[in-house]
Amino acid sequence: MEEPEVPTEHLHEHIHEAAHQGHDKWSMRVAISTAFMAAFAAVSSLMAGHQSNEALITQVQASDKWAYYNAKGIKAEVADAVLQLKDAKQPDDAKAAAERKEKLKKDQEKIQEEARELEKESQEHLADDMVLARAVTFFQIAISISAISLLSKKKPLWYISLVLFAIGITQFILGVI
Q1: Close Cβ partners of 174 (under 8 Å, ≥ 6 residues apart)
Q2: Is the pLDDT of residue 68 over 70?
Q3: I want to staple 125 with a disulfide (CB 3.0 to 4.6 A). Which of 33, 54, 64, 166 is the partner?
Q4: Is the C-alpha dihedral spanning 163, 165, 170, 174 positive or negative?
Q5: Does residue 161 contact residue 41 with C-beta atoms inside 8 Å?
Q6: What is the pLDDT of residue 76?
Q7: How far apart are CA 42 and CA 134, in angstroms?
Q8: What is the model's pLDDT at position 90?
């Protein structure tokens, strides 16, 4: 899975220039808040990538468990075939084959449970990845609108960026807990 990118380098340059040109308190607040937005975007992006990787790894582990489950099933069928052959020839060997088949079936049940648990865990990681990716998106949009507000000197746009930043923070918290 691919990590979401946070292309904010060019915005930082524009914001830095605009803040130094204006030297007013509002420009400095916008610049500082935008820096926080960028920091949260970077952390969220990193965490989303981690969750995505964990989902992939866990899904591979679940697939391995299902392959093991199938192998046990094949062994149980072979044991059943052996049981049918031995039933006719040697009753004592048939009992051992029946016990082996029963053990293989019990093993299969345990493996199936483990595989389902790994699939569930993978889905949880993917859900966290989606929430964190949404947080990154809100942070990126907030950064862009903040930059536009600074360049255009329109304070209402900055307030909109702060609201989007707050929504991003909410998504970030939901993705972490």
Answers
A1: 131
A2: yes
A3: 54
A4: positive
A5: no
A6: 79
A7: 13
A8: 66
Element housing 5 (H / E): none
Give the pLDDT confidence of 113-150 residue by residue, as tens digits.
999 999 998 999 888 899 999 999 999 999 999 999 98
> Rounded to the nearest 5 degrees, what angle is found at the Cα of 75, between the Cα atoms of 74 and 76?
90
Q: What is the mean pLDDT of residues 7-16?
A: 60
Say if residues 82 and 97 touch (Cβ distance below 8 Å): yes
**CA count, 13 A, side-chain hemisphere, 37:** 33
Three state DSSP letters for 13-57: HHHHHHHHHHCCHHHHHHHHHHHHHHHHHHHHHHHHHHHHHHHHH
Domain boundaries, the chain: 9-13+27-176
Distances (CA, A) of 168 to 15, 25, 48, 122, 175: 20, 25, 13, 24, 10
Question: What Rg, from alpha-carbon coordinates, does the chain have?
Answer: 29
Q: What SS3 state is found at 6?
A: coil
